[in-house]
Amino acid sequence: MTEMLAGVSAGTVALILLAGFAGHLLHPRVLPAALTAHRTVPGPLVWPAAIAVGALEGMLGAVTGYALLAGRPRALELGATGSGLLFAAYAIYGLYILRTRPVERGRRSERSGRPRDEAARAASEEDRATIGTVPCGCAADDTPMSGWVAGRAAALALASVTASAGAGSAVASHGVHVTIVGLSSVVFAALLWSLPPALSDPERSPAG
User: Taking the C-alpha atoms of 40, 45, 49 and 50 in order, what is their torsion angle to the nearest 10 degrees?
Assistant: First the structure.
């Protein structure tokens, strides 16, 4: 059971990272546009930062996936540890964007000289608009930055820790376990990839 859990965690992390890398390659302007909207990176550094993030995702995804398939526990431990740090940074960054952008908009409304109640209502409306229009920069997706995006990153950080801690047992899977690990990784990766967009915009979900 332990080896399957670690294997599925590693496979899911590798697939998400490689999917993100592919998305950045196919749609190279998405992440720079998101970073510009977030206003967290100086203008001249937006493109270098976006390229570095995409390259890091590709490298960590490739290392983690290769180590899992080739039975290299040390490489898997290193790849999963790096992935965990990256996803933890994503989660913290997402929470930072959610916390700072609405506050900034709200303060501008209060400085506008309108009555307090009117300013509060306007700030609330602007806050919702901000959260709904600031993109997360997730590969080719136009998903807005939300708690679901930060939560996905946190879940993937936890999966990375699980893969790193169980690297030795993860690469020991044989026979039917390999098939189960592979299929389960694909399913969980697909769910984690698609849930934030669906939950941020119910019209995207099948039920909508």
Answer: 90
